User: Fold Extracellular solute-binding protein from Streptomyces cynarae.
Amino acid sequence: MRSTSSTIRTLRAARTAAAVIAGALALTLTACGGSHDDKSSSDKSSGSTQTGGATVTLPKLDGQHLEVAAVWTGGEQKNFKTVLAEFQKRTGAEVTFVPAQDPIINFLGSKIAGGQPPDVALLPQPGAIKQAVDRKWAKPLGAEAQAELAKNYSQGWQDIGKVGGKQYGVYYKAANKSLIWYNAKVFEGANGKEPKTWQELLTAAQNIYDSGVTPFSIGGADGWTLTDWFENVYLSQAGPEKYDQLAQHKIKWTDPSVKQALTTLAQIWGKKDYIAGGPNGALQTEFPASVTQTFTGGDQPKAGMVFEGDFAQVNIGETKARIGADAKVFPFPAVGAQAPVVTGGDAAVILKDSKAAQALVTFLASPDAASIQAKLGGYLSPNKNVPDSAYPNAVQQKMAKALLAAGDSFRFDMSDQAPQAFGGTPGKGEWKDLQDFLKNPTDVAGTQAKLEKDAAAAYGSGS
Assistant:
């Protein structure tokens, strides 16, 4: 995750589209529709299939075996296995999912050292793609995969899968990481309305607290959720230019803009009664539990709101809450001039070049594969040829439209752009520093100093 910046230096072509996306999201995010029939049809004999007018042709691969590694668990893993099963059915290849651990680069390193690398890996940090290329693990995409990618993806999504001008990654999965989900019964009981500004969010939190419910659930045991909090506040408050500079470490974490963002975050993190279990409880709560505890317990859940991306739907689905009715969502409120939009994603990268591996990545670049997982929920694709009807409800359809409406104008998750040692390793770097800040939100200066020290070491080494 995730959720969920390939070469840190090539990503800057992205432009923010916060106003466009937030506006589109705000229109009908809380609507809920029924499921739609999948309009894809498949020709099992030829391996040629159609979805939304697009066609992908796959070779026969009887007798071949593929291993695919990803840091996906629970419903996300189960749904992806459904996609792999379809590839297996169409080609005859045998496909095995390999559960990976964070950080996946370390996991892959041990596999490669042991002579058993998976054929394909889903890399959740674009910076990890560059590391895989630099270490000569990753293999460039072949002509068929590149053609499918060019047909279905905007240039911006293609570019973040490139290293040194060569295409290595296919962004199979995307995430809108600028959303706050809320328990509709709690909001109703607190006479709450969906906030559009940070101050309105603070007011809503106080109203929820006064109604007898803790306002926020935070999955602080997973440091990446805290980086997402920071990035949304920072992008909206400091603006896209500063965001890009900090993402590239062209300005230091001791910059006044970082102080301002941390001070703003402390308006929530610094109120222990606003956080389910207090800071210590949050630091023992993993992301899935932070979501489910917001939507269980009737009108007295452990919290009224939980911040995270569209992928939280998978966890909401594990409760009895109905998305669009019991569980609703609003865009992350504007802290500065406009609401932020932060995206993430997972890219398929080939580690063992073969006809079968190339065919699988070609399939993952097609609307066929994305439509299968879209129908299962908790998933967004940057593939522009996935039909709206592939998504199971109006909430997801609007999220997908908003994502695609940005075109090439988006801001990618900042921590995913950083070297993994800083932005993507449990117990280290930004993840650990923000966990410490959640524990002690009064230490803004100390947190900045630690962030800068860790960032300087990681960017200096490129690791």
